[in-house]
From TrEMBL:
Pfam family, one: DUF2533
Organism, scientific name: Bacillus pumilus (strain SAFR-032)
Record protein name field: DUF2533 domain-containing protein
């Protein structure tokens, strides 16, 4: 029989791994957003496909209840951000 301490420890380790995965995805998402913003600023074609693929993975983790949901990003959102940034 496992002890309560072992069960709590295993649960805590699982939550920690869950959060670590989320943080790694968050970093990748930020990099993808930065790349889309950069391309938009340079008037180059860009998509939000990579951002939203990462966001979907993050939201999958969020369904576990520990980490927050993230919004999907549209091309218009990127353009509006760049326009505000340039003012």
């Amino acid at each position: 029989m496992t002890s309560v301490h072992e069960e709590i420890s295993a649960h805590s380790q699982k939550q920690h791994a869950h959060i670590q995965s989320f943080l790694e995805l968050e970093q990748k998402r930020e990099q993808a957003i930065e790349m889309a913003v950069f391309k938009c600023e340079q008037n180059e074609p860009f998509t939000t496909d990579e951002i939203n693929a990462i966001t979907s993975k993050m939201n999958e983790l969020a369904r576990g209840g520990i980490v927050p949901l993230r919004k999907l990003v549209t091309n218009d959102m990127v353009r509006e951000y760049v326009e505000r940034k340039q003012k």
